[in-house]
Write a structure and sequence with these properties.
By secondary structure, this protein is mostly helical. It folds into 2 domains: 66 residues, no CATH class; 91 residues, Arc Repressor Mutant, subunit A, CATH 1.10.10. Helices cover 43% and strands 10% of the residues. The strands form 2 sheets. The chain has a two-stranded antiparallel ribbon with strand order 1-2. Strand 3 and strand 4 form a beta hairpin. Helix 4 crosses helix 6 and helix 4 crosses helix 7. About 14% of the residues have low confidence.
């Protein structure tokens, strides 16, 4: 019998990723299901989905009794995010743009900061009214406590700004 060394959680995850990365989605899911069953792990597939992402599912078989599906996050466009979060002013919209760029934009557009150019570009894409002085919006948003400086002309959404977008928008309507 081989002498097995104990692996850290990170090492185990790395090995699983290497073992599964070249398989298609269906094969990955079948492999994970087999491991879960073999190790007798209580597994609730619905915990894989995130309520803040739009997802599509694919059945692993035509068997209608199968409870397993693949959850594929999809990019949410800035206009849909704006409509969902309903920002009420330039500062809220700037926070939304920064949030979008960091968490929801297509991979090739993702960035952890926002610039003046981003204000104009994404306000237009979201069909949100352009401010009279777009260059002033990131500065005002920083002054309001939602952005931190991230270098010359760059601003990063801080935890206060993140919480505004993720947890406080849209505001509940008062009756």
């Amino acid at each position: 019998m081989e002498d097995h060394e104990h692996k850290s959680l990170g090492q185990a995850i790395d090995e699983l990723i290497v073992a599964l990365k070249d398989l298609d989605d269906i094969s990955r899911l079948i492999a994970i299901k087999a491991v879960v069953e073999h190790l007798n792990i209580a597994f609730i597939p619905s915990t894989l989905s995130n309520k803040n992402t739009i997802s599509t599912t694919s059945r692993i078989s035509n068997d209608e009794s199968s409870d397993y599906s693949i959850v594929k996050p999809q990019v949410i466009d800035i206009q849909s995010l704006k409509e969902n979060k309903n920002p009420s002013n330039d500062i809220e919209m700037a926070c939304l743009v920064a949030f979008y760029l960091e968490h929801n934009a297509p991979e090739n557009e993702r960035q952890s900061y926002i610039t003046n150019k981003d204000i104009e570009k994404y306000f237009i894409q979201a069909k949100f009214p352009l401010p009279k002085a777009p260059h002033q919006v990131p500065i005002n948003t920083k002054t309001a406590g939602y952005f931190d400086s991230a270098g010359r002309g760059k601003y990063k959404l801080n935890p206060v700004g993140y919480n505004l977008v993720a947890h406080k928008m849209p505001k509940e309507k008062k009756n």
